Amino acid sequence: xxxxxxxxxxxxxxxxxxxxxxxxxxxxxxxxxxxxxxxxxxxxxxxxxxxxxxxxxxxxxxxxxxxxxxxxxxxxxxxxxxxxxxxxxxxxxxxxxxxxxxxxxxxxxxxxxxxxxxxxxxxxxxxxxxxxxxxxxxxxxxxxxxxxxxxxxxxxxxxxxxxxxxxxxxxxxxxxxxxxxxxxxxxxxxxxxxxxxxxxxxxxxxxxxxxxxxxxxxxxxxxxxxxxxxxxxxxxxxxxxxxxxxxxxxxxxxxxxxxxxxxxxxxxx
Length: 269
Prior knowledge:
Blueprint: E1 7-15, E2 21-29, H1 40-49, H2 53-68, H3 73-78, E3 81-86, H4 88-91, H5 94-105, E4 112-116, H6 125-135, E5 140-144, H7 156-159, E6 162-167, H8 169-173, H9 178-193, E7 197-200, H10 206-214, E8 219-220, H11 231-243
Parallel strand pairs: 2-3, 3-4, 4-5, 5-6, 6-7, 7-8
Antiparallel strand pairs: 1-2, 1-8
Helix pairs in contact: 2-5
InterPro entries: Cyclic-di-GMP_PDE-like (IPR050706), EAL_dom (IPR001633), EAL_sf (IPR035919)
Domain EAL: 1-242
GO molecular function: cyclic-guanylate-specific phosphodiesterase activity
């Protein structure tokens, strides 16, 4: 972090009804990672364990805002939200919350969604609630990442000002089974009751994409739609989809958008 060594990639989020990019999730990557502990799921938990999560989350936020500030106007308009992962450790840290307020009050910024990750427990729920209520005045919404996994429990829906839940990729992977389909349908219905939006992660097949659309899921992300991309490639992707009117017919997609094939191929059958 001190050497600006961590890289950022951006996972596009697609509007399920329209098939257009509606946001991105910011992801940290260790350049040239070779050791197992350099994988994101490992070094992020390591940061939580060593008390470095607030510093890591603030580092990612600062770096993302610098990169996003250089986006062309068309891309900024397309990205309704920019999602950034925030550890529960950070959300309970008063210095982190104050640093975020100072950072956002000093510069223009896109609409932000802080995804509260499921990897650490919340011991001071009132602190987290008050913190996110205060951050809402700076244009930050709260999302629960990997809902009903780890520490992302049901009670957080009523205890915190949640605006989005994210369906875990393991639940999306089971959409092809009656039990899995019913679970995802139940999560979407639950969110609808609270006027909370839903994003599904880990979409890897056309069948999963179609099932989520049929269930009324708001947005989705995953390798079938697009791998995480450098920001310059996100700009290219949005530009190409904007030019291609067929992007508004997601029901005709035969393949998702990938890092190597930016334009979705359309089945005429």
